[in-house]
Structure formats: structure tokens, C-alpha cells
Amino acid sequence: MAVKPGVSKEEAKKKLQALITMKTKQRMIEESMKNIKYKIGVISGKGGVGKSTVTANLAVALANKGYKVGIIDSDFHGPSIPKILGLEDEKVLVTEDKKFVPVEGPLGIKVMSIYYFLPDPTTAVIWRGPLKKSFLEEILASTLFGYLDFLLIDLPPGTGDEAINLVQTLPNLTGLIAVTQPTEVSAISVAKSIDFAKKSGVRVLGIVENMSGFLCPVEKKVYRVFPGNGGQMLSDKYSIPLLGRIPIDPNIAGSADKGEIFLIKNPESPFTIEFNNVIERLLRVLKELNG
Ligand SMILES: Nc1ncnc2c1ncn2[C@@H]1O[C@H](COP(=O)(O)OP(=O)(O)OP(=O)(O)O)[C@@H](O)[C@H]1O
Ligand SMILES: [Mg+2]
Question: Please, what are the domains in the chain?
Fold first, then answer.
């Protein structure tokens, strides 16, 4: 490295060391991710629209079809995948050579979450962007996922540090799935996420409209709750496939508490049927991508 006038030898040495560390990390991530076929992030512009619910249930629906699936829960401020999949009491093991063994969930789904690194579930993570980035790099480089057909990455709302870090760090990210509610307010904020994806050169594979009507547990009918047609609107505007419309089913949240996986216990529910439609459409999109 040429030493510019004004840059001390010491500084130049430090910069070189940082560059080597970065390159080594990148190589480790590439090596660790090379046996994972599809890497898909789940995003939305707004909080609470159901990203984590969609991520977890997509994973279950895919694993139920025989695919090997992993999840990275990269929501530093509200990691919820372990709760949704009933894996809160599990632990991530660390091997002698400092690799992480992900938690094995239902149907063999491999789960990695910051949740497992917190002293207790109520601990707030007060990290700035660079620290979050190095943690994500560490997870990507050192988790022993082995071969996977799908790695789903659950993101926090918006287009903040975690989303930027993911698209910058993960080699060959297949694309993103955007989750919206039917309302225009939700769709507008998801439009920002789609814009972010475009600007980052990442494909949005599809849109999932969640909380699309209420599934009455007594009458087994779906009633409209929120106004709007957000999923279809975004699909038309950006020419991105609408993968499905998932109804609100009041029983799903309680399922994990009972240690049950809703999709498996309730194969006839419209919630389950629509998730299966979502993965069929997603598989079609991926097939088209691969020519
Ligand atoms: N289709 C659905 N039917 C019933 N409940 C749902 C549905 N989708 C989500 N929920 C519930 O809504 C709440 C928010 O969902 P979830 O945590 O998945 O949203 P999120 O977008 O990941 O939130 P955050 O932005 O905080 O990460 C949860 O309590 C979840 O159980
Ligand atoms: Mg979430």
C-alpha cells in the first residue's frame, strides 16, 4: 500500500489490517453461505404488519413440503421468531472453533436469533449501526446451517441499519418479500421499502398482504376488517407478483404458547391454505428467475 504524505506508517498499517480483516470476513461469509440455495429477506415499511409471522409460517410451509429451511432473526430490537416457533427455552451452542450451532425447530428448521445472545428477553439492545453490522457478519460467517434450500431473514421494520447491512453483507441475496396490510397507510410505507430495494439493486420477489380480512372461528368465514387493497395496489404499481392474502386468524398467536405449530395442526384452515398458495407462487417466481 502506497503511504501518502501525511499518513503515518502506523495509520497505514492499521488501515491495511482493517482491509485484511474485512476481506477475511467476506471470504468466511461466502464460504459459510455457499451451500444455501435461496436467501430471502422479509421486509416492510411499517412495524407490526406481520413480517415475523409471515417469515415463521413461510418457513414451516416450505419445510412441510420437504425443503430444508433456516431462519435468521435479525431484528435486534424485537427478536420474535423463537417465541413464534416455541423455541424460547433453547440455546445456541458454540463449538470449540467458535462456530454457532443454530437451534433446531419444528420440521428441522434451523433458527438463529439475537434473542439467544441476550441475558433475558427484556434486555434492550442499544447498538449503533456498525456494531449491528459486525454481529450480522459474525452470524452469517459462523453459523453452521449446512445445506439449505431456503434461508429466510426476518428484518425489523423500515429501511434502517439492519436492512442496509443485510443487502451489503449477504452475498447473492436472492431477493426480498415485502409484507403489507391492506391499508393505504401500510402500502405507502411498504412502497418505500420497495424503493429501497430498487436503489440497492435487490429484487423484490413478491408481496404478501397480511391481515387481509378476519377469519371468524365460529362461522369459518373471512370478514373484511381493514379498508384498502394495498397488496394488489403495490403489485400493479411495481409489477411485482402478489403472492397471497393471509387472513387474521385469532388462534395463531396462542398456538406457539401451547407448543403447537398452527399450519401443521390446522391443514384445512384458510390461513394454512393461503400460506401454501404463497409458497407455490414463490416457487414459480424462483423457477422463472432461474430460467
Ligand atoms: N395473520 C395473522 N393472524 C393473526 N394474528 C396475526 C397475523 N399476523 C400477525 N399477527 C399477530 O400480530 C402481531 C404482530 O405480528 P408480527 O410480530 O409478525 O409483526 P412484525 O411485522 O414482525 O412486527 P415488528 O415490526 O414489531 O417486527 C403478533 O402478535 C402476531 O401474532
Ligand atoms: Mg417482527
Answer: 21-248 (3.40.50.300)
